[in-house]
Amino acid sequence: MNKLQLLKLTLGIVLLAPFPVFADSHEEPTPEYAPVPEPPVLPDPVESGEALEPEITIIRRDDAIITEYRVNGNLYMVKIVPAFGPPYYLIDRDGDGQMEGRINDIYDDIIVPQWVLFSW
Q1: Which of 25, 53, 73, 88 has its CA at 20 to 30 Å from residue 35's CA atom?
Q2: Do residues 111 and 104 touch, judged by C-beta distance below 8 A?
Q3: Hey, is 61 helix, strand or coil?
Q4: 57 and 65 in contact (C-beta within 8 Å)?
């Protein structure tokens, strides 16, 4: 056998060797799956009865405009805009009903947000 015939034979074997694998392969039938159920209807959102936003009361007087901020009926902040002078805030810092903090527009200290996580 010369080199050309050997090359043709080798090439033929390499090209035809995978053919029986592909010829024998058959697709298996896909198994029957149960139909996907419809998603359940979502329940209505839970209402806890608490207001999510503060209740705001605006009181207009001749000498000032007073804005009261309440959450769950508790007064936590009062904004006072006097007829003359800059507006300022009175803040109940510890929740005892007494307005301890006075803040105006040039106040430099940081006020840390406070949330009620649990109450009973």
Answers
A1: 25
A2: no
A3: coil
A4: no
